[in-house]
Amino acid sequence: MGKQVPVILCHQDSYQLGLGSNHADVYHWFNKYNKTMENVRNDVAALLGQKVESVQIMPELTRILRFKSEGDDVLSMQQRLIELGYNLGPYGADGDFGEDTETAVMKFQQDNNLYIDGEVGPDTWNALFGKTKQDDSRP
I need a surface site. Which of 2, 11, 52, 115 has the fewest CB within 10 A? Predict the structure, then answer.
């Protein structure tokens, strides 16, 4: 069974799909300008006069993410929250689960009728990565 792969990948996307190595590459820039890889794909498609089918790369949850967690899984979760319109404060997606991330997770949990504990376990993870901007009904 093959994987659905976006046409444009950054290093982190490639790593999450098991196709390459991982390093921060463009994410330092993304944090500064509140952008995501999805923005890049859509901008390139618009320049080419095409529409991009959104392909969400769903990373695997291997642990419960909570305040003070660090790592690539935290970074993926933070990037997804930003894509969905949640504010992570001045540091954005940095791979560190701080107070602003906890607040955003709790707001996401509230908006999606999940148990509100500020931790990202299987239910919150699946809601995050199963949800798309088009599905978002928040005003």
Answer: 2
